[in-house]
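Subject line: Sequence and fold of a protein, written as structure tokens
Enclosed: The protein record, placed directly beneath this head.
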Amino acid sequence: MTEGTTSAAAEGGDTLTRLEQEGEIAADYLEGLLDIADLDGDIDMDVEADRAAVSIISDSGSRDLQKLVGRDGEVLEALQELTRLAVHRETGDRSRLMLDIAGFRAKKRSELAELGAKAAAEVKAGGQPVKLDPMTPFERKVVHDAIAAAGLRSESEGEEPQRFVVVLPA
């Protein structure tokens, strides 16, 4: 291989290493936050869909960690942004890291996939577009994926924070 060229495997390995590094930085940052807040939690790191994924879980149930989730995941979203900033500060690169606390996002992802499938079924049956309630970018992404899996198209409309998904007939 000549200088300046890389194979796809090498690039994939570099990406994985970079994402693993993001996960490590995020884990260190979050461990510090857990210590400051005097909360117990274990940190799990993974790479999912070309992004680092970090989860905080607790053996003592998720009651203590609910403080870090907040109402409708608002605190979780803020902590995710702070964690992304911590990763950016260390690496100099923008991070797309996903943070889950006490399984909140995993449960939400399942509920949203079901909502997307129901909306797709409604559009298939009625032939008319269906507008869903406003959602966060994470929520819209999950719904868009569920609608695509059902064989339909969808679009996001509106301005944040009132941006919503419209499911379109085939």
